Amino acid sequence: MLALLCTAFGAGAFADIIIVPGDVVAMTCAEDNALNGSYTITDSGQILLKYIGAVEIGGLTEKAAADKIGAALIEQQILRMATIVISVDIAKRPPVTCAGAVSNPGEVAWRDGLSLSDVLKTAGPTSAADLAAIRISHAGGAVENVNASKTPPDNPLLSPGDRVFVPLQVGGQDITVLGAVMKPGIVKFRPGIRLSEAIESAGGFRLDSEKTRVAVTLRAGGSSIIDTTLAENDIALSPGDQVVVPIRAANENVYVRGAVSKPGMVPFAAGMTISKVVDASGPVQGARLDKVKLIRKGPDGKSKTTKVDLAKVTSGEAPDEPLLAGDIIDVPYPARGTSFQEKMQLVSLVIFVFFLLKR
Hints:
359 residues, alpha+beta, 5-stranded mixed beta sheet, 6 helices, globular
């Protein structure tokens, strides 16, 4: 019966835009303005909402996502009616990334009609690239193998968040570093280069990397799983070796929100601190790092908020705050200043009230 009280979900016209991880979406709720705002879809395709938490909408159209969120609000008895509108900010769609045997690895801004050939033109495959075995990892999880060396070449259209990997030809002389590093791709071989140096050349470990199970495949044959946290395991590498840093299994997370460019869930790891997580999440210009809030649920189920001054942490004036699984980090946006005109208007109002009362 409760569902009958919902008059409409997602009122208005909707385009058939499919929501993908990394999308920035605007949401409005006619019945509760507290839900209105801009949200970034997580890597797992979830939108994180007040009251009901995570709702998986990756792979849905804007209208289907609005329907699902509205139904969840009613089912959990948050609202009696839920008129939800979802719209994707096309200008902020996640870029396509290209890595591997290319001269310019990195991001290519997504646009409608973006094809593999467009990305390869920007990335510049090296002479050692194997264009017949390119792999495209789609945002939804599917992997597509394409042959860009034949005539005519495979040239599929790409979607927001797709990852293009151009492998080395057999016999390549450089080192490939893949997986949970900041800049996966090719590292130039030099005599004496060690595992730690190759990973550092690839931008270093990401926060979600599993440092104790790094896979090294030798061009000469054989492979091994290496715990890179032990100094004695820092082996020397040879031309053509491949290093893969796995992503750590994330059963527990911390959540970052507010004035950061990459809000959302971060896989928890022992020893993680608030300054490292905020830094990796990319604070926006003017973010109030002196007033960061750490929200932690206690054994009694009640949340406690602690203010952390990251400016003092960075300067060494205050200790860094270790995190626990389930912590929420809230980075405040820049404070809105009061203009001179607003101040004068306030003074005029006070004077007016004073003379009004004196009459």
